[in-house]
Amino acid sequence: MTPVSLFTRWCTALILTLGAGMLHAASISVTPSASVVTEGDVFDVTIEGTDFTDGTIGGGFSLSWDASVLEVQSYTLTFVGDQTFGQAGTLDNVAGTLMNADVTSLNGTANAAFQIASITFAAIGTGNTLLDLAIGTFPGGSPRVWADATGFNDTNPLFYDGKVAVNPVPVPAAAWLFGSGLLGLGSLSRRKKSANA
Fold first, then answer.
1. Is 23 helix (H, G, I), strand (E, B) or coil?
2. Where is the secretion signal located (predicted)?
């Protein structure tokens, strides 16, 4: 075996080993990850945790969006557990933020996948917006870590944003036909007036 071949095999094994760990890293994400809605629609998204192999006792998150496109109608923290020490967070529809929501359970969850929150949005404008998900912080600025349920170690989850596209309300085809009919009647009316003059 040549040194280049041996080196190539070693690099391939290293990449596969490191990549496999990333495939199963704990993550917190917006579900669905992409939504297409129409202006005026009301729709739900959930914040979910996955691949927490030892479960978790909870942690915190913040969410932001374009306030000219979306508005939160309601939200519920749905994390399983006692919620004794959790905090609802601060909702600001003018700024487009839900800051520092915290879910905590001293009992923890043994599940590797779980729901954290359910959020109902109203599409109030057209355009695209990111549902920017990040770790929450305490008033002093330190992060609200997501600790595992066995050793209370920080799991450093990956955060995955969501995207929402809000389309304008479509004009029905009948309205276009009606409009073209009115234009036709208007032009006939003008022809009659010019012929009579």
1. helix
2. 1-25
